[in-house]
Amino acid sequence: MTMKKFINSVDTFLEDSLRGFAAAHADLVELHTAPTFLSRRHRKSGKVALISGGGSGHEPLHIGFIGPGMLDGACPGQVFTSPTPDQMLRAGETLECGAGVLFIVKNYSGDVMNFEMASELADFENATVLVEDDVALPGSSSTGRRGVMGTVIVEKVLGALAEEGADLGTLLEAGRHLHPRMASMGVAITSCTVPAAGRPTFVLAENEIEVGVGIHGEPGRRRDVLRPAAELVQELMDALLEELSPAPGAEVLLIVNGMGATPLAELYVLFGEASQVLERLGLRLERSLVGNYTTALDMAGASITLCLLDAEIKRAWDAPVHTSALRWGR
Amino acid sequence: MTMKKFINSVDTFLEDSLRGFAAAHADLVELHTAPTFLSRRHRKSGKVALISGGGSGHEPLHIGFIGPGMLDGACPGQVFTSPTPDQMLRAGETLECGAGVLFIVKNYSGDVMNFEMASELADFENATVLVEDDVALPGSSSTGRRGVMGTVIVEKVLGALAEEGADLGTLLEAGRHLHPRMASMGVAITSCTVPAAGRPTFVLAENEIEVGVGIHGEPGRRRDVLRPAAELVQELMDALLEELSPAPGAEVLLIVNGMGATPLAELYVLFGEASQVLERLGLRLERSLVGNYTTALDMAGASITLCLLDAEIKRAWDAPVHTSALRWGR
User: Fold this and answer.
1) Mean pLDDT of A137-162
2) Per residue in A76-87, pLDDT tens?
3) Is B216 a catalytic residue?
4) Cβ(A323)–Cβ(A290) under 8 Å?
5) Which CATH class is domain B182-317?
6) Which of these CATH numbers, 3.30.70.1350, 3.40.50.10440, 3.40.50.10610, 3.30.360.10, describes A13-180?
7) Which of A25, A32, A42, A58 does the annotation list as catalytic?
8) How much is the average pLDDT of B132-142?
């Protein structure tokens, strides 16, 4: 089977894509090579530098969230492959400006290991926030849960606080406050195809879905047959609500995230069902986001994220942001 | 073959999707039923009401462009099916507030006919801007060209002018000024599947692409084999540049639009190649947009749009906009 993608070659895919990204958003970002990282063009001195990174193939995560109010830099690895410590080190050295560096890391072993190595080798003050919001699988005590769409909430909320001048300790505390308040879970109706592999990562039968799929095509809770959107959403929402146990009347941020190949019209079908689940339970939909934010290449699928809001999270979420993928208030 | 989509049923797809859209963006829009249309929640009195519409399946077009600085209302038809005149009439009656209504219509026979009927039956003053930016096929003198991604430019530019108080005549003039300055062309690597049909609209062989595809899966210029992104982009850009004949040093807006199932990372590959074509020709990339804006359900494909800028178009493009799909300056 031929792999159908808009690429020049498998070998130059990442480089070509990053070059296009930098050309499209030259007002916001700068692309650095050898080692590869992207930096925010107009930096603010004296603030903690927020740097994230991870394997490519999840765009706009993380590069699309560079800019005022979110990230100062991002280190993209090859597709679904962790970036190497030299990328994080160089990004940190370039972006640190007196208040230290906060690394925002999704919980995957390669990412964790390589960010840790960078953290240890760094001459600059740094700390790390680990994101692990995927409730699909029970995390063992040693590995924890996978980091998925909650990463965008962490980058937005901590990005707002850093922009206002919060120090490293305050940002770590905000991360600890945020984490137990958010949960995500996804479902795939097709696999993705990693360019270098040239064939689908996994195979689903004609009417089959993967409930709880990971953003690299990792197995979820189970295979199932495709069911009406309302039933799928109910199952995902049950898992999220069981995890979060919101009090009656709680205010929530509801996100329906596309995995890359799911049309917006279908994401809105899912959002409509999820918002009705909230309504039936007396929970208050206060903020929402619908679109492709944490993707898995060309996977058709979607994830739902719930975040329990309070005044501080809401204020940080609403704060001005100017990135290529999220922009408001300026 | 089973159709894999996140829907409850084929019959309720549009209704469910619109309900989800209205729930996600309750701060921006209101959903009206019987007949169906969406309106801007916070209206500005005394301005020309901008109303667009067309078949669904192209989201975020048009509903995602309702809000301050763009549309006042949109009339979605069933998937790939024109809205009916009663929708446009009711939307116009609801939204007209003293300065008349401007209908923005993509050039498809059903849309043209039904908007014309609404225009004739209307008790309110109204005028129509027809969008026909697709250069894939030579338009006959009677039917003209298809309207595609250029529609978003028309809605943004005329939306900004209307927000500033431009009258109907000024908006028509701005539309006439804009039209010869923009051109679009697309390419598909997979078909889309209309829910009610349950099977792909057309069939491409494993390595085949449709060059010049329409946003409903209409045939383009020809079938070809999948080639490197740089070659595909060169062919699309050649067609656009032949149409527009930009002067050396001309300032352009470059848009790479995804058809629904193409990952952002691939759209950036295309953007990178297109920006290099501009650079080689000494054209100036002044504004850019990359993402899914005028889609064709779950088609994997992309289109490129070029718009020659001048001070007035640039100013209107940059003006504040607050819609679910485009937002800046507020």
Assistant:
1) 92
2) 999 999 999 999
3) yes
4) no
5) alpha beta
6) 3.40.50.10440
7) A58
8) 85
